[in-house]
Amino acid sequence: MLLSSLAAQLITRELAAPAQGWAWAWRIQNEYPAPLREAAEAWVENRPLPNPQGGGCSLEEVMEATGATAPQALELLYVLERSPSDGLTLLARCTRRDRLR
């Protein structure tokens, strides 16, 4: 996946500022573990998303709990993978209250 393609999609589809989109694309390509990178690639190519795991949560679970888009949920999974305690704190803060009922 080309960095420019990923950045362009993040900027246009996620409405990221250009600097944010490029930095986010770089992080996905250079820091994300392979399963998360593959999910980002599927998102860019409009293919069905795989359901990678990170920190004991799946992409679908994070998207359902938070209402996040796929790239946003992948970022949360990345944090969960890197630092489970911080990731769970962020996930709890992002969880939509209406999803808990």
Structural overview:
By secondary structure, this protein is mainly alpha-helical. It has six helices and two strands. The protein has helices at residues 3-13, 18-30, 34-44, 59-66, 70-82, 84-94, and strands at residues 53-54, 57-58. Strands 1-2 form a two-stranded antiparallel sheet. Strand 1 (53-54) and strand 2 form a beta hairpin. The longest helix has 13 residues, at 18-30. It is globular and about 35 Å long. The termini are far apart. The mean pLDDT is 92.
Q: Keyphrases for this structure?
A:
2 strands, two-stranded antiparallel ribbon, 101 residues, single chain, mainly alpha
Question: How is this structure best summarized?
Answer:
The chain has six helices and two strands; from the N terminus they run αααββααα. By secondary structure, it is mainly alpha-helical.
